[in-house]
Amino acid sequence: MTIKTFITFPDERQAKRSLLDMDEQQLADFLAELGEAKFRARQIWEWIYQRYAGDFESMTDLPKTLRSRLAEVATVASLTLATEVVSADRDTIKCLFQLHDGQTIEAVLMLYDQRRTLCISSQAGCAMGCTFCATAQGGLARNLTSGEIVAQVLYFARYLADPSLLPDSNVERPTQVTNIVLMGMGEPLHNYANVWTALRRITDNSAFGLGARHITLSTVGLAPMIDRMADEGLQIGLAVSLHAPNDSLRTSLVPVNKGYSVDAVLEAVRRYVVKTHRRVTFEYALMCGINDSPGLAQELAAKLQGILCHVNLIPLNPIPDSPFQPTSDEDTEHFAQILRAAGIPTTVRLRRGIEINAGCGQLRQSRDAQNRTS
Ligand code: SF4
Fold first, then answer.
1. DSSP string of 43-98, one letter each residue
2. Which is the closest atom of ligand 1 to the Cα of 219?
3. Which of 10, 172, 312, 349 is the most buried (most CB within 10 A)?
4. pLDDT of residue 251
5. For this structure, is 309 an active site residue?
6. Dmax over Cα atoms in the chain, in whole Å?
């Protein structure tokens, strides 16, 4: 494992306008305020979203005076790298980014044979309070802007496209982000408007242009927002973090279950499937002695009967000193077999990034702990 920490300074971006928070029309309006012609908006748009420019200096077909003026009043760099951790096999790269106000967020790039999957954050912190999650421990600091969400994708697009930035890799050198999952810090449906603005930008062919079917949004189960998502008309995949088949156990793991019970969430999912005809993924983080008994597997299978779905069993990324520890491989397989025998398609997620604190919120937590002791 390789860890690089970058010193960060008080941030001058606070006073600047982020172009990543603008759609193309807003960018054109902003440039008009600076006295620039409309066609400059298209030029800059393409530099940002198709050529992944991380600063104005590299936008070489803009006049030098415009580049200097833009650098004074605007930014296309919403993130500053604070810590980068690369796994020993060099296939998992986790970054802690600092935002202009000092908040930090995490994103992880996972290199597979055919896919380059990016896990991004939607909020700095999280208000959902899941008891097994490192991010929950600090609460919610704030929502990310749409630009800060898009910036994570652009950072890794730049990273993959530039051979000098990539660590030596065991796998064929990837050149583009192929899949995105919103499973990092935060609850994406709790920052609905900004997340969907970002998703439209990421999938827009005139911007980043990734197919919506290559993106999955993971929610803890905010039922009314699942209904809203069903009406969006974008083929984004839906994953619901269930983690328990009944209310008493689920409320102890996922407190938001008090507001949206297991049945309420499953009803919202049924409506979603009827509207979108899309298969939904249920995520279930298996925790030793907590939610991994054969009886609970049977209860889960009974609950999910008749829903067009698939269960993804997740080996928990353990948090040090936490009572929540991962289920053994043997018990995980037994749990999976019970679901499959009941006709529920089930997979076990590949373990990735345990050694580099790749579980949501863990890198930020260890950096905060370091800062407290230094
Ligand atoms: S598991 Fe997800 S929804 Fe729950 S507290 Fe952590 S980041 Fe928030």
1. HHHHHHHTS---SSTT-TTS-HHHHHHHHHHEES---EEEEEEE-TTS-EEEEEEE
2. 3
3. 312
4. 98
5. no
6. 69
- Mean per-residue pLDDT, 77-104: 90
What residues flank ligand 1, with Cβ below 6 Å? 126, 128-130, 133, 135-136, 185-187, 220, 360
Encoded tokens for 8: 């960060």
Nearest CA-CA partner of 125 in 112, 142, 146, 149? 142
The Å distance, Cα 135 to ligand 1 centre, comes to: 6
Reported confidence tier of residue 12, pLDDT bands at 50, 70, 90: low
Query: Which three-class secondary structure state does DSSP give residue 76?
Result: coil
From 135, 182, 251, the mutation candidate for ligand 1 (largest count of ligand atoms within 8 A of CB) is 135
Is the pLDDT at 366 greater than 70? The verdict is no
Of the candidate ranges 107-116, 120-129, 215-224, 273-282, the one whose mean pLDDT is the lowest = 107-116
Domains of the chain: 2-75 (1.10.150.530), 80-373 (3.20.20.70)
